[in-house]
Amino acid sequence: MHIETSLLREKYEIREEQPNNSSKPIQMVTMSNRMALKLQAGNMPEESYVIRTQNMHGCARFASVLLSEYERLGPLLSRTTPLNFHDLWDKALSPFERLHNPDKWVNLYHKGKSIYSEGPEHPFLDVIEKCDVVNKGDYEDSIKMAQNAFSQAGKQVKIDYDSNVALVCSLTKVEARCSMIIRGPGRTNTFNVTITPAEDEEKINIMHGLSLSADILEAVQLCYRIGHISANVELGILKKYGDEYNIMKQAKKRLIEIDAQLNSIENRYSMRYRPERPNFNHIVTLTEKFIYKNPPPTQETA
């Protein structure tokens, strides 16, 4: 099996057009992380999915769980007993995510139709995915088609679209290559990781390329959260031992878990980072310094 995929951070701004060609203020802002996943092994039919989630690591980790399930028991949609996607999504969530991310959501599409979702409904994204199927994967044109669809329904709108690539993966059983673009406080960093079999192994489990990427993306997000809370406690904006402080303590524990997971993969395979594996403690420190230099404009005690 060979997996080629990328993860997009997306933002849509929808404005209603006026008869005089002016636009009203933004009516709706929709943000999403999107990953297309094509699964095929041997002569089996190809299954294509689109995953959308609230955060980047959830998207990559759910993709890794779907890939693992496909490799374990074959096609996902043609089983005698229908697959329980809820259980797979639950498997993709860490205890920290379940407890401390009330905004999490997921939507899984097949042939433009939502076949599983949890969290708030996203009818606008449903329209985009339907248009993408009609356009046969020409994604940019799908956004224009969605705009025309609203027009035909009697609603004149303008859709402004912005996206950034967060992750690019090329995965096989002999080599997994992942490139990540990570936005930090005041800077954006790019790094690559390559996974190959260790000397005593012939193959790798290709889901580990996605799961390792998810771990790193989650760890960096946790670093920002830890640094942000820590700095605001020092500035007196947040209470020590308050709710946010306790979340920070749990985030630190989760960061230790992720570090152990990364070490486990590194011990199993031959790994090459370029330039190097992210230093999570350093990211926390950079975030703290950034907050000290750019404190919130209003001081609210939580």
Can you put this structure into words, describing what you see?
- This protein has 302 residues and is of the alpha+beta class.
- The protein is built from eight helices and nine strands.
- It has helices spanning 56-73, 85-92, 95-100, 123-134, 139-152, 207-234, 243-268, 280-293, and strands spanning 3-17, 23-39, 47-53, 106-110, 113-118, 157-171, 176-184, 187-196, 270-274.
- The model has no long low-confidence stretch (mean pLDDT 89).
- It folds into two domains: 1-169, no CATH class; 172-302, no CATH class.
- It has a nine-stranded antiparallel beta sheet with strand order 5-4-3-2-1-6-7-8-9, with helices on both faces.
- The chain starts with a strand and ends in a 9-residue tail after the last helix.
Structure characteristics:
302 residues, alpha+beta
Percent strand equals 25-35%
Number of domains: 2
The main sheet orders its strands as 5-4-3-2-1-6-7-8-9
Low-confidence stretches: none
Computed CA radius of gyration, to the nearest angstrom: 21 Å
Number of helices: 8
| H/E element order | EEEHHHEEHHEEEHHEH
Largest sheet: 9 strands, antiparallel
Overall geometric form: globular
Summarize model confidence as the mean pLDDT. 89
End-to-end distance, in Å? 50 Å
How helical, in percent, are the residues?
40-55%
Derived from helix and strand composition plus strand pairing, the structural class reads alpha+beta
Please provide the count of β strands.
9
